[in-house]
Amino acid sequence: MSGGCERPTRPDVDEFVRPATVHDLPELGVLERSYRLAISSTPRGGAQWLRDAPELGDTGWSERLNDPNAATYVAGVDGVVLGYASMTVAQRGQSDAVAVVDGIFVDEGARELGLGDSLLAALIESATLSGASEIESNTLPGDRDTKNLYERAGLVARLLTVSKPLT
Q1: What distance lies between CA 51 and its chain's CA centroid?
Q2: Architecture in CATH of 15-152
Q3: Is the per-residue pLDDT at 40 higher than 90?
Q4: What is the reported pTM?
Q5: Where are the domains of the chain?
Q6: Most exposed of 42, 71, 139, 163 (fewest Cβ within 10 Å)?
């Protein structure tokens, strides 16, 4: 896959990245809940993100898997799904399409395997094939791991949102 960093393969580990299917709904649900739990403990922006992005659950994931403008991939080792990445391609203006990463998460115990890099590379390839002119995402302040993942794939910050609660 293009768009990610190259890393040595390990013959003792059978890693995979593939499009998600309805058979992955239970794992997607578990991973999404883990993702949301991790975000809830992020002091800067986590609560706001959780308010703005409701949990998909089985119904939402099923709809996403059937959406022709969305792409969802799962990754894992030895047949066990340990992470997912999802994006939606939308028109921006009259001619440009942009791919927006809706979520990318790898189980904490599998984060040094490079699955996040492989998932992001799959999204970049899918976005390119769909005709998107750009891929973008959001990350929370202080989430250095996700920022590093995006930077390794060539995504760079171009806008920061600042806010202050007034109540």
Answers
A1: 18
A2: 3-Layer(aba) Sandwich (3.40)
A3: no
A4: 0.84
A5: 15-152
A6: 163
